[in-house]
Amino acid sequence: MNKVVQKVVVASTNPVKVEAALSGLQAMFPQHEFQVEPISVPSGVADQPMSDTETLTGAFNRMCNAFDAHPQADFWVGIEGGVQALHQELAAFAWIVVRAQGLVGKARSGMFFLPPAVANLVHQGVELGEADDRVFGQANSKQNGGAIGILTDNVVDRKSLYEQTMKLALVPFKNETLYIQD
């Protein structure tokens, strides 16, 4: 039996984000095959979102811009990483927004607190990936394990964090009748 092939537009060319979106879709919908098209679209927010709301807005805008750029697809995915100050510390997380079949699914990843040296650079206007590279002596860490990968020795990496979030964002599509509004 041939599997149904569905086109997915991921609003990022970062291989970690693209692989996480694909892995999440494959886990939630094993009966389908997915053809992924990564594209670069603007988020409409700062390069380093500094709040939960700004990060969600960035993910939503990316999903919308992916839809506008390629309306002939089955899924559109926006992924945005961000930070937020909490209790005099800086927490990192991501939002994923998925559109398909007239529905929109959203989920936020788990969050973790950044070391002070990284947080200080981010507060000075340095993007988190660049701050990680400087503090940890890495190169292009945001296209690898990211801050969480560095801090956990890849027990949890950026891809696994985003993959779980992708699965959560797909909940409405596994339960359409519960989420479709008249």
Helix content: 40-55%
Count of helices? 8
Spans where pLDDT lies below 50 across 5 or more residues: none
Say what the CATH topology is: Maf protein
- What is the CATH class? Alpha Beta
**SSE string, helices as H and strands as E:** EHEHEEEEHHHHHH
For the secondary structure, the number of strands is: 6
Taking all residues together, what is the mean pLDDT? 95
Outline:
globular
Cα-atom Rg, whole angstroms?
16 Å
Beta-strand fraction estimate: 25-35%
Number of domains: 1
Q: What structural category do the secondary elements indicate? A: alpha/beta
> What is the name of the CATH architecture?
Alpha-Beta Complex
The main sheet comes to:
6 strands, mixed
Instruction: Give the termini separation.
Output: 35 Å
Summary?
With 182 residues, the protein is α/β, with parallel strands linked by helices. It has helices at 15-28, 52-69, 116-123, 128-136, 146-152, 158-169, 171-174, 176-179, and strands at residues 4-10, 32-38, 75-86, 89-100, 103-108, 112-113.
Distinctive features:
single chain; alpha/beta; magnesium; ITPase-like_fam; hydrolase activity; nucleotide-binding; EC 3.6.1.73
Layout: helices, strands, pairs:
Blueprint: E1 4-10, H1 15-28, E2 32-38, H2 52-69, E3 75-86, E4 89-100, E5 103-108, E6 112-113, H3 116-123, H4 128-136, H5 146-152, H6 158-169, H7 171-174, H8 176-179
Parallel strand pairs: 1-2, 1-3
Antiparallel strand pairs: 3-4, 4-5, 4-6
Helix pairs in contact: 1-6, 3-4
Organism: Rufibacter sediminis
GO molecular function: hydrolase activity
Pfam families: NTPase_I-T (PF01931)
